Amino acid sequence: MSSGFGYELTKPLLDKVDTVLGTVHNKAKISDLITEYPTLFDCQILDVTDTPTVHQVVKESFVKHGEIDVIINNAGYGGQVAFPGNSMYHATKFGIEGFCESVAQEVESFNIGVTLVEPGGARTEFRYGSAQVADLMPE
């Protein structure tokens, strides 16, 4: 939610809903949203590979806000189409589709909706990050 579609989706949500809970790697990228919506935007730094911290952030969110109504996963377009040289990236994105379908069933009884955003190709900062990763790949 700190760049690209995640960022672009967050601002309209903040204008329309009570509270938006989000996670990022770096709060500096969204300081404008934190400043503009100090009571509506609850953003936590989170490394999603750190399972205990993920559990802690979810528990703290429930304690602070009482409930979660909608989960949005902004997976990008990599789950819709695959390109050579990006097999691991696309594998994770295809996996996100199955993950979201499963989570949707798991949280349905709690009245939580799950939305997976796969908007297709667009001009975001993603392409620059991908280029940096490509530079690190062995030939």
Automatic annotation (TrEMBL):
InterPro entries: NAD(P)-bd_dom_sf, SDR_fam, SDR_oxidoreductase. Transmembrane segments: none annotated. One of its GO terms (molecular function) is oxidoreductase activity. The keyword Protease does not apply. Keywords: Oxidoreductase. Gene3D superfamilies: NAD(P)-binding Rossmann-like Domain (3.40.50.720). Belongs to the short-chain dehydrogenases/reductases (SDR) family. This is NADP-dependent 3-hydroxy acid dehydrogenase YdfG. It comes from Trichococcus patagoniensis.
